[in-house]
Write a structure and sequence with these properties.
Layout (H helix, E strand, L loop, with lengths): L1 H25 L5 H48 L10
Helix pairs in contact: 1-2
Length: about 90
Amino acid sequence: MQDCELYRQIFMSVMTSVFGMAPLILYPGAGSELYRGIGSVVIGGLLVSTVFTLVLVPAMFSLFLSAKTTMTQAIGAVFGSPKPAFDGD
């Protein structure tokens, strides 16, 4: 449940920034060509980095963790469990 709360807080912070930058894209006045480009780059960067943070990083972590577990089990099955270098005797 704490993960959902954390994701919600991150998502709300990003959406606040996106909605704050929206007038830069939507403003039709003089000089808006400059601000429209800056606004679209900032909004795109925020959205892409949010997707990377909330989706891609946890997915890659899970993938590498399962690959490590599989490799450890395969090595253990081939070579057996490692014996300690020193028994203490």
